Amino acid sequence: MAKGSSDPFCSTTRCICVGSPSISGPSTGTVQQGVGNILSGTYSETTNTITAHTWSISLQGTYGVATINSSGQTFYDLNDQHSALKALDPGQTSTDVFQVQVTDIYGTSTMNVTITIQGNFCFAAGTRVQTAEGLRAIETIKVGDLVETLDHGLQPVRWAGRQSYSAQVLQLAPKLRGIVIGKGALGHGLPRADVCVSRHHRIMLQSDLALRLFGQAQVLVPAHRLIGVQGVASCDHFGGIDYCHLLFDRHELLMIEGIAAETLFLGAQNEIDFADKSLLCAGAMPPAYLARCAKVPARPIPPPDIQRKIVAEMLRSASRVAA
User: What does pTM read for this prediction?
Assistant: First the structure.
């Protein structure tokens, strides 16, 4: 740069070269459909760190609204009522993209942020859950109620949600139909009564084959993998169905009619913080804690090929492999 330049970073003895600003921060995130999530992440400008810069959202996503403040903190609020998301099958995913922009005197830069939207895993209304007050229908359980978990005893519910699907919707979208695990289908008289969950809701199985193939005897397998086992089938739900979700401090297992089934699992969202506006408003958890909530599975989740082998063993075994 020539001597006498008006650039504030240049002098007769030294020159600090500058260029267009650059953005550092999370480029991906994961959000659960239907539970009122807000994702948050913080972005920084890493090239011209001592110049004034302005943050903005230069491109909005399709399924949610992104905002950013002057400090680079970004929030993504999913529109759970979007028709495409309401039709998302439990276990399916969709993606959304918004664009973060920073501007300073040297130029403008943008960064795409890709959000993965997950369909929910859940219990059908009417499922009986053991609480501090005895057995209760899952749809009657609310935030703060104490529910018996397999690993940690009585635990408070941090969030409870419910989604309804009419018979007409289920007719058009068969994957929204529940999976019924019939009484005794998993052996040893378990479950003690019919249990209905969404297709991808995971059930804990115990198997010597799982131990040999995966190094863990107790594993979580989606309910739809069990179709083919006598007594397990998709349900027509001619009157429609309500699915209910329970979120705890950890990913937990609930004993439902004698079998272990998972609570709401948020997944490994290690690149962008998770926050839930309903929990924040209710004061159920400090915001800093939400980023760790229910992100570690209560039991290992094998890859699909091993899941299929475990179920194939069930089909060959008269004793089944229910935990």
Answer: 0.64
